[in-house]
Design brief:
By secondary structure, the chain is an alpha+beta fold. 25% of the residues lie in helices and 35% in strands. It has seven helices and 19 strands.
Length: 339
């Protein structure tokens, strides 16, 4: 296996037993990678690579869905479960000695551009990325994750999951996509009917009412259609923006917490986990950290919000208290606007 400079969110790993894991976040133990199981070999799978069929283990990314994979791993592949002494939770991971291949989104995008698209979906991706590069001037900051990254995609139904690296770069892409969707010529926005269906499918899964979910759906900038194919965009921290090393801090849960707060800085909410700096005196809480992508990049500076989550004490290099939303063992947590 080639040397990995820095593991980042939404990289992929193929294990020695042909499981496909998606890398999560930026805290990784020195001998492995924090990641969740996404695809497993299956004779009935819809995805395929080099004669091996795969099926998805979870229908969509949500911490509770990821936790559902732990029973499967306990039964068949317990080596991919890890009791993390830094976060004080059990999580899935891939030990370095179990890595067969490591996939980087930028390298895959560069491969497509250098050698040319191999199918209709890669061709659409190449055209979409070219449009975004023309609009923003970003040439080497875009990658592709998901099934196109691992070459398990099927042009008949797979979508396009684009990654963009860096905070400034992400906001340039956001501005470009919002403008292009408003023109609705090259990129089409999500229709109202699709928004309503999206809300319907989540109203029983989240501790939010229909109005709250619809308001979130209207603010989701990073989804749309290009040439009738669904695409998403996912901002990722650049190497210089990863400020914490594994072991710099330890994390300790102190129980559930509810309350209200004012957002003072939402700039890093565009990432996952989404970080909202808040003004709140209780427990000296300084930030809300959401591991649930639903709440990422939605709220703005000055917004008055309600929240429910887990109070977590951070000990180490930067001691503070924070509120965790959408983390492990917090299925009914939320962030929403004050009525």
């Amino acid at each position: 296996m080639k040397k990995i400079v820095t593991p980042t969110d939404r990289d992929f790993i193929e294990t020695v037993d042909d499981q496909l894991f998606c890398v999560v976040g930026y805290l990784h133990p020195p001998d492995g990678y924090t990641a969740y199981l996404k695809y497993v070999p299956s004779n009935t799978g819809k995805w395929e690579k080099n004669g091996t069929r795969y099926q998805r283990v979870i229908p969509y990314y949500q911490v509770s869905q990821v936790e559902n994979t732990y029973e499967y791993l306990k039964k068949y592949y317990s080596k991919y479960l890890f009791k993390c002494p830094v976060r004080n939770i059990e999580t899935s991971w891939v030990p370095k000695q179990k890595v067969k291949k490591y996939f980087k989104p930028i390298e895959r995008m560069q491969e497509i551009e250098k050698h040319g698209p191999k199918d209709r979906l890669e061709e659409k991706l190449s055209k979409l990325v070219s449009i975004l590069c023309e609009q923003t001037g970003l040439i080497e900051s875009l990658g592709v994750t998901g099934s196109i990254l691992t070459k398990t995609h099927n042009p008949k139904f797979s979508d396009m999951d684009i990654t963009v690296y860096g905070l400034d770069e992400a906001y340039k892409i956001k501005k470009s996509i919002e403008a292009l969707k408003k023109e609705a010529e090259k990129i089409k926005p999500i229709s109202r009917a699709e928004m309503e269906n999206w809300v319907k499918n989540r109203v029983d899964k989240f501790n939010l009412n229909r109005f709250d979910l619809l308001k979130i759906a209207e603010k989701r900038w990073n989804y749309g259609y290009y040439l009738d194919t669904y695409f998403s965009v996912h901002p990722i921290r650049k190497e210089g923006e990863i400020k914490e090393k594994y072991g710099d801090n330890t994390y300790h849960r102190r129980g559930e917490i509810m309350g209200t707060a004012t957002i003072t800085d939402a700039s890093e909410s565009i990432y996952l986990p989404a970080i909202y700096k808040i003004k709140k005196s209780q427990h000296q809480v300084t930030e809300i950290v959401s591991f649930e992508g639903l709440f990422g990049g939605i709220f703005q500076k000055g917004d008055e919000i309600k929240f429910k989550g887990v109070l977590e004490e951070v000990k180490g290099r930067k001691p503070h208290f924070r509120i965790i939303v959408g983390g492990a063992n917090s299925p009914d947590s939320y962030i929403k606007w004050v009525d």
